[in-house]
Amino acid sequence: MTKEILIVDDNRAILKQMGALLSGTYEFSLATSGEEALSFCELGTPDLVLLDIEMPGMDGFETIVRLKSIPSMRGVPVIFLTGFNDADTEIKALELGAMDFITKPAEKDILLYRIKIHLDLCEYNVDARTSRQAADARLRIRAPFFRKKSENKAKYAEVSAKKWTFSQNLMPVGYTDAERSNCSAFP
């Protein structure tokens, strides 16, 4: 199944460049503003978002916060693709939920590789979550059996302890502890 990427940038030349780069490998949709991106994501969920920071109206920071408030978008990786290259901006982007931060102009192979990595990680997380849910379901089915087995073990331990106490009390009256330890007939 071909993955779909939403590219959000107010610069139409960048949108065209990114579209050319991704065509043939991924399906993609274009948005020229944060508002358009939100409208798109309310109708359908892309597999990954490439997001610019500096846009008129709603910037990339506000856009990611609003995207992550859409329940279906919470697990979708967002990569900031921006002209900013300072550490404070990168940290803010990551704190707001971005999975990666790439400075424009992006090297084609690096961008494609990072997109692939994040899509693979997302797919791995979905597979792991599905496996966990299946394991939880199996455990719920088997829980009564394990509970019964556990109860039986507890009863066995209790009966064994009573038998041990009973056998200790069988020692003839009048023997001291020293005499009991020397007597092989009595445990």
Could you explain the architecture of this structure?
The chain starts with a strand and ends in a 5-residue tail after the last helix. It has a domain at about 5-135: Response regulator (Rossmann fold, 3-Layer(aba) Sandwich). With about 190 residues, the chain is an alpha/beta fold. α2 runs parallel beside α3 (about 60-70). The longest helix is centred in the last third of the chain and has 61 residues, at about 110-170. The model has no long low-confidence stretch (mean pLDDT about 80). The protein has helices spanning about 10-20, 35-45, 60-70, 85-95, 110-170, 175-180; strands at about 5-10, 25-30, 50, 80, 100-105. Helices cover about 55% and strands about 10% of the residues.
List keywords for this structure.
single chain, 187 residues, alpha/beta, Rossmann fold, 5-stranded parallel sheet, 5 strands, 12% strand, elongated
**N-to-C series of helices and strands:** EHEHEHEHEHH
Mean pLDDT score, rounded? 81
CATH architecture of the domain at 4-133: 3-Layer(aba) Sandwich
Q: What proportion of the residues is helical, as a percent range?
A: 55-70%
Please describe the biggest sheet, giving its number of strands, its sense, and whether it closes into a barrel.
Answer: 5 strands, parallel
What is the global morphology? elongated
Output the CATH topology of the domain at 4-133: Rossmann fold
Q: Give the CATH superfamily of the domain at 4-133.
A: Response regulator
Beta fraction: 5-15%
The stretches of 5 or more residues where confidence is low (pLDDT under 50) are none
Structural class: alpha/beta
Q: What is the terminal-to-terminal distance? A: 73 Å
Number of helices: 6
- Assigned CATH class of the domain at 4-133: Alpha Beta
Strand order of the largest sheet: 2-1-3-4-5
Report the radius of gyration as a whole number of Å: 32 Å
Number of DSSP strand runs = 5
